């Protein structure tokens, strides 16, 4: 059986979380109070031969690029081919089939791998799947937010931490729940996955598409909530792009602004420009900072030293990031599994 190793040792300059032996009653920090490391484009076969190895890596965020293939009505996983799959997800639906089956599966196949891996590692720390919808949804073709929810629910069931879980039957919107810091402790999220949705590069470049993934899923959450069916939603839409201040105000209709508590932007833009990122921590929002290697002074995007990764984690934790990402897939789980105190 192939396992994962997630350490919480003190590495370099990063103030990593640790529970000392015999200190069984030490309080686990909330999910909103920590900073962890993710891997960009983890479905890429050049990074991991099989997606199960990406799950083994210790990374707390793994990215998937998804195209809606409106001709065949499939969810394709690929970097640049909207009509085919090019990825490390296998035709594996059970634990004993992992690490050896044919690859290039669709999103359902990737989710099958995640479900099978979860059976091997039911106590794993929480993992965020960042899903870039490359061309957006196509609801008319039966590839909209509701179908996405249905697929994730069918494949992963109760292992997904959903928007309704954050509300907990107490709060009316995600914003209200986040501001009250209703996030659970990291330890209580063991065995759980979270899904973040962002608009894709092709979608953003399409001059005829003015209704992107973030807004469409925000509308979806609002409408489900109004119908008393928020429990069907499986994902958190993210506000994409680093800005100074609250980027929701000038971007979304007031009716959906409270449904965004995930924010996703370039790390160097936040830090090198001196943006006030305390806004995110003060309101207990989840801030994902991409391209962590590009923050000044820049480090390697692929093969930094362990000490450089630890230092970068500490720096971005101080700048209130919840998750930092780069292409550090070659690093061991003792590095990628590190978790720091946020802020």
TrEMBL record:
It is an enzyme of class 3 (hydrolase). Its EC number is 3.1.4.11. Keywords: Hydrolase, Signal. SUPFAM superfamilies: PLC-like phosphodiesterases. Coiled coil: none annotated. It comes from the Bacteria. One of its GO terms (molecular function) is phosphatidylinositol-4,5-bisphosphate phospholipase C activity. Residues 1-26 form the signal peptide. It holds the Pfam family PI-PLC-C1. The keyword Membrane does not apply. Gene3D superfamilies: Phosphatidylinositol (PI) phosphodiesterase (3.20.20.190). This is Ca2+-dependent phosphoinositide-specific phospholipase C. It comes from Streptomyces sp. 900105245.
